[in-house]
């Protein structure tokens, strides 16, 4: 979230962050957003009888603030088909693995247990299936001898901070287009380029 807010401050960035919405009224991100002059709201999921009731309250707030596009960041709630359908094609998420590998939790430990040599993160459009959906961009990091879930996760997180703002900018500028279940990245020559970022040296 902080990376998105900071990137959006650049005059050349193609999107504005207009609202930070959390299901936790005590989330630290709300205070950060307020300090940055961004509207904040909290909808405590614990007071609702059902997930859809909670999501309908969120949807009302999003409508009040005239939100056009959603970026999930640290939002650890499963969304119902109703909400996903309501925001289909207008909601992205970042996942700490190179999808379609390692969906779900504990991705770094699972990757290490499998002995993979390349790990990373993925920005994707949200669909009803968890950690699925059309891929917008990916960033790869090498797995090195002696890695732990913590050290590997820190390197992946560094790439998440780079790739999430880039993906949002591509979508908001019209350079990334969702067509027939796939995302096409329009290059400067009018061709499709895959948005795969290699880690910095």
Protein described:
Strands 3-4-5-6-9 form a 5-stranded mixed β-sheet, covered by helices on one side. It has a two-stranded parallel sheet with strand order 1-2. It is 34% helix and 21% strand. The protein has a single domain, classed as Formyl transferase, N-terminal domain (Rossmann fold), CATH 3.40.50. It is globular, with a radius of gyration of 17 Å. The two termini are 25 Å apart. About 3% of the residues have low confidence. Helix 1 packs parallel to helix 6 and helix 5 packs across helix 6.
Spans of at least 5 consecutive residues whose pLDDT stays below 50 are 188-194
Helix content: 25-40%
- How much strand content do the residues show? 15-25%
The CATH class label is Alpha Beta
Mean pLDDT: 94
- CATH homologous superfamily heading: Formyl transferase, N-terminal domain
User: Strand tally, please?
Assistant: 9
For the terminal residues, how far apart are their CA atoms?
A: 25 Å
Number of helices: 6
Keywords summarizing the entry:
two-stranded parallel sheet; Rossmann fold; 201 residues; 5-stranded mixed beta sheet
In a nutshell, what does this entry contain?
This is Phosphoribosylglycinamide formyltransferase. Belongs to the GART family. With about 200 residues, the chain is α/β, with parallel strands linked by helices.
Q: What order do the helices and strands come in, and which of them pair?
A:
Elements: H1 2-8, E1 19-22, H2 28-35, E2 39-42, H3 51-64, E3 70-72, H4 81-86, E4 91-95, H5 107-114, E5 118-125, E6 135-142, H6 149-173, E7 176-179, E8 182-185, E9 196-197
Parallel strand pairs: 1-2, 3-4, 6-9
Antiparallel strand pairs: 4-5, 5-6, 7-8
Helix pairs in contact: 1-6, 5-6
Pathway: Purine metabolism; IMP biosynthesis via de novo pathway; N(2)-formyl-N(1)-(5-phospho-D-ribosyl)glycinamide from N(1)-(5-phospho-D-ribosyl)glycinamide (10-formyl THF route): step 1/1
Binding site for (6R)-10-formyltetrahydrofolate: 51, 76-79, 93
GO molecular function, one term: phosphoribosylglycinamide formyltransferase activity
